[in-house]
Design brief:
This protein has a domain of about 290 residues. With about 425 residues, it is mainly alpha-helical. It is built from 15 helices and no strands. The model has no long low-confidence stretch (mean pLDDT about 90). Helix 7 runs antiparallel to helix 8. GO terms for molecular function: oxidoreductase activity. This is ER-bound oxygenase mpaB/mpaB'/Rubber oxygenase catalytic domain-containing protein. It comes from Lasiosphaeria miniovina.
């Protein structure tokens, strides 16, 4: 009779495994905080008073590090949902519905391709404004192109100053809220100031008026002492604006449905309902009601909160920090040397402006869903920033954009708070 095999794990091995795990967790914590401390040492703001001296360049470096290395996935998601939340305001959603850029096919079905093109154009301009260096040609051109695309609507009164400020407030505040709620640590005061200072300066470049904020000199105020001061007033104003203007409207519902189409486009059909429930949770009750989404089942909320808590624990204790060479790249650095056109590094639903490719998980997924798409239809040759937008506006606005670029270059690089 064969002797029984002892499959028990040696007791001493458990102690070694536990010690190794504890040492690894300690290493993760040390390296994570070392990266944070290195950024703080490079841009020291030890006191609240010192934040008033933060320059545009410093604010850019800090917020870029947060978005590419420290909290890349959460911040990227927050920007998408910040844009989604603007659709809860009827004056904003009605204009977007009227432009036809988020449209329907002739048979009444939603046109996912058209919606994804509009999302791609918005992403291209926003990413170049936020990720490219403030003094670079592509960042300045993105500001100029965005202002040109808005100009006719603003002159006609179809886009109000308050709608512009509300949109800016969401892009400023949502990343902070998401990090504080979903990440392994909260933002420091200096990091919050940097995000605020960067978006405040970008808002000025985009000609967003701050007259509605109490300390605005345009409204007779004394100006803001630092980015946190501006942020506090912006948040208070946003809450009051949302209480008055976020409400249910048919155009909100239409835009939310179209946005869900692209957000959940790559999910298998069996997971789409679960995806809708997660989106509903992330939007929150006020916005959810305003865009006509039903509340998720209670158990989804519970599962979601448990998943968030588990992720926080794993990232804090078991994940090494992301080094610079593994940063989340939102932009490809150089244009095509032959055409001068840029390509996107990331995309949603359809590969607008992406390089031609047949390899990689997303290409294989597209093939599995029904074949390879016609890449030429999605402008695989890339984009030029001054041509981004609706087809009817390609090649237009050159003189106006030239003037805007000159004014933007003249003011960039100064302290974003002290200039007002």
């Amino acid at each position: 009779m064969a002797a029984a095999v002892d499959l028990r794990f040696p007791s001493g091995a458990w102690a070694w495994a536990g010690s190794a795990l504890a040492l690894y967790a300690l290493l993760c914590a040390l390296l994570r905080h070392r990266q944070q401390h290195a950024m703080e040492a490079a841009h020291p703001f030890p006191t609240r008073a010192s934040l008033a001296s933060m320059t545009h360049a410093q604010a850019y470096e800090i917020q870029k590090w947060l978005g590419e290395q420290e909290f890349p996935s959460v911040i990227a998601g927050s920007i998408f949902f910040a844009l989604f939340k603007t659709y809860s305001v009827p004056s904003i959603s009605q204009l977007l519905a009227q432009t036809g850029e988020i449209g329907r096919c002739g048979n009444g079905r939603r046109d996912v391709e058209k919606t994804s093109k509009r999302a791609a154009d918005t992403s291209v301009l926003l990413t170049n404004m936020v990720v490219a260096r403030p003094q670079s040609a592509r960042a300045v051109q993105a500001v100029a192109r965005t202002r040109f695309l808005h100009a006719a609507h603003r002159r006609a009164g179809r886009i109000s100053d308050d709608d512009m400020l509300y949109t800016l407030s969401l892009f400023t505040l949502e990343p902070m809220r998401w990090v504080d709620e979903f990440e392994w640590r909260r933002l420091s005061a200096a990091e919050r100031c940097a995000v605020a200072a960067f978006w405040k300066a970008l808002g000025e470049d985009l000609d967003v008026p701050y007259r509605a904020l109490p300390s605005s000199r345009a409204a007779g105020g004394a100006g803001w002492v630092d980015g946190l001061h501006w942020l506090e007033e912006l948040d208070a104003w946003r809450r009051e604006y949302a209480a008055r203007h976020v409400r249910l409207h048919e155009s909100n519902v239409a835009l939310a449905a179209a946005t869900l189409d692209i957000a959940l486009f790559e999910l298998p059909a069996v997971l789409k309902l679960a995806g809708r429930h997660v989106v509903s949770i992330l939007l929150g009750p006020e916005v959810r009601d305003a865009v006509g989404l039903p509340p998720p089942p209670a158990h989804y909320e519970t599962i979601f909160r448990i998943a968030v808590a588990a992720r926080k624990f794993v990232v804090r204790h078991l994940c090494l920090p992301r080094p610079h060479w593994l940063r989340m790249r939102h932009l490809l650095d150089d244009p095509d040397p032959h055409t001068g056109r840029y390509h996107v590094a990331r995309w949603i639903a359809h590969p607008w402006y992406a390089r031609r490719g047949r390899w990689g998980p997303r290409a294989w997924l597209r093939w599995a869903r029904g074949g390879v798409e016609d890449e030429n239809r999605f402008h695989a040759e890339g984009y030029k920033i001054r041509e981004v937008g609706p087809a009817r506006l390609v090649g237009k606005g050159g003189d106006e954009m030239d003037e805007i670029e000159q004014s933007v270059r003249a003011r960039r690089g100064t302290c974003p708070v002290a200039t007002l």
